Amino acid sequence: xxxxxxxxxxxxxxxxxxxxxxxxxxxxxxxxxxxxxxxxxxxxxxxxxxxxxxxxxxxxxxxxxxxxxxxxxxxxxxxxxxxxx
Length: 85
Known about the structure:
Order of helices and strands: HHHEE
């Protein structure tokens, strides 16, 4: 488990409760601890200057949705064409 990333995500989660009013951190943490691949994806977002945070829960898939909540798109990801990346 990536403790520094988990700590950072928790701080961000607590700092912006308006993004996830009906979601509990303990539930998000349980999902993240159960799926290291998702943690790797969130770490890559952080590594490229992003600020991933929980914004919703999808009851159909039983998954929490993370969006990049950085104020500006990170420089390394601006003008990127995803179908060619």
